[in-house]
Amino acid sequence: MSQTTPIEKETPTEYAIYPLIKERWSPRVFSEKNISEEQVKTLLEAGRWAPSSSNQQPWRIVWGIKGSETYDRIFNCLHKFNKGWAGNAQVLWACAFKKDMPNGENENFHALHDLGLFMGNVCTQAQSMGIAVHQMAGIDFKGAQKEFNFPDNYHVATAAAFGYYGGNPDVLDDDLKKQELKKERSRKKQSEFAFNGNFQK
């Protein structure tokens, strides 16, 4: 895949926010520049220090670098749509969480929230390193659970693709290429999700 100049996105924030958050976005093409095992472990270390309910740290990550057997095993668990682009990532993760508390009797209702906090740390750390992250709901979670020998009290929730910004969008189909090249990012207005009082529809 030929290299291109990284796409610069416009993020029209209503208030000034930290640049690493403002500049982060989720491409579907990546540079061919390798990501090392040390860099993967740096990302994992950032996630390791995320807050979690009762310090349970319920996240569990299976990771693979491109060219390895583990990378291929994760890739094979992805849904067809994501297989169409994720193969150009340099690193793939399968992200899971432990569903129950240490006593095994009570459900950990906050485990998915904690996995999200873990990945939030990872995304910010990755951005500081010039590495892009694209998280995916499209993973065969039952297949991945079996493939990687997760017990029944674990759930494989997502996958994540990592690579440096700067891939060639011409390798994508027309619809995805259009999304990739779209200049301005968008989000809901604060007034649609944050209420200083009662919930509003």
TrEMBL record:
For this UniProt record, the keywords arranged alphabetically read as follows:
Oxidoreductase
Q: Which GO terms describe its molecular function?
A: oxidoreductase activity
Residue spans crossing the bilayer: none
Q: Which residues form the Nitroreductase domain?
A: 21-164
| Annotated spans, Disordered | 182-201
Concerning its family, UniProt says: Belongs to the nitroreductase family.
**Record's PANTHER family?**
NAD(P)H NITROREDUCTASE YDGI-RELATED (PTHR43673), NADH DEHYDROGENASE_NAD(P)H NITROREDUCTASE XCC3605-RELATED (PTHR43673:SF10)
Protein name per its UniProtKB record: Nitroreductase
The species is Marixanthomonas ophiurae
